Amino acid sequence: MTNFNVPTRNEVSAENQKIFDSLQKAVGFVPNIYATMATSDNALKNFLDFANSKSSLKTKEKEVINLAVSELNQCQYCLSAHTAIASMNGFNAEQIKEIRSGRATFEPKLDTLAQLSRNISENRGATNSEILSAFFAAGWTKENLMDVINQVGEITITNYLHRTTEVAVDFPAAEAL
């Protein structure tokens, strides 16, 4: 496999340097997954525009999707990053582990979200009709469904990026299930 080095600020375009500066200010560091995207003059900005676009989903709901899909895709980087983010958003360690398995029995509405997200990813969009019906029965809307599909796509991008490049994980390691 080709060795992917994480570029430093001085090794990326001027436009990406501005993004690095913004990330440094907002997050306190430039996550390796984002720095790796900066190998392209366009990928990092395009991804962040997509990731920061408006959604009907709350941050906590997005983390359910991120964890369920990242576990399915076996992305250690994203599992580590989103375990930390989910914890900051009020999930405890046991809840995070359950979400990673594609369930959230501690909150029925989130349970349908976790199941749907995993099912969409696992079946490449050929979603199980019973899981989809349960999602709507739990109070989710068609708008929410569109935003769930977008979020599955977003996390899949970073899952695939890490699985391909294997850049170093710069978040506390997520425990194996």
Written account of the structure:
The protein is 63% helix and 0% strand. The chain is built from nine helices and no strands. It has helices spanning 14-27, 32-37, 43-51, 59-72, 76-88, 93-100, 108-122, 129-137, 142-165. Helix 4 crosses helix 9 (142-165). The longest helix is centred in the last third of the chain and has 24 residues, at 142-165. The radius of gyration is 16 Å and the shape is globular.
Q: Based on the structure given, which CATH architecture of the largest domain is correct?
A: Up-down Bundle
Gyration radius, in Å: 16 Å
Percentage of residues in strands: under 5%
State the CATH superfamily name of the largest domain. Answer: AhpD-like
Proportion in helices: 55-70%
CATH topology (fold) name of the largest domain: AhpD-like
What is the average per-residue confidence, as pLDDT, rounded to a whole number? 97
Which geometry do the CA atoms define?
A: globular
- By CATH reckoning, the class of the largest domain would read Mainly Alpha
Structural class based on helices, strands and sheet pairing: mainly alpha
Give the termini distance in whole angstroms. Answer: 27 Å
